[in-house]
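Sample entry (140 residues):
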Amino acid sequence: MDIKYVYAGIVHDTVEEAQASVLVERNLLDTEPTNWIEVKAITGNSTDGWLIPPVKLNDAEINNIDDTKTYMVASIIGGENLLGLSSSEVTEKVSSYRTEYAIYNCVETIYRSNFDATGQDTDVEQEEIPTDIDMSGYVS
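Predicted structure, serialized as tokens:
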């Protein structure tokens, strides 16, 4: 049996590696919303129909949303899809979907667990180790 440390779904050999990945995850949560939300600029309206292009906005475009456009958003984790949103509504969804993503990835906790020779987690009960970096702001 090998002891491994799991953080945000990624297995690490040491607790130090897992703790170092917390900073990477925090930076992702601060700057890379395409991990939890898809956003597209759309045209049209709810009466006559929406025109939805195949092109998704990138991280920089989502982080600097154009308030002259109308948008479609989709939550990657929760599956919610919404049409006809304003820039302020998109900004709110980026934040709420980020919380959903952070909770899903358990960003406040590193899990110490036993793995067998095939790489399978064999612990029924894992030991929880709090992260050195406070991640509570991302899950509330």
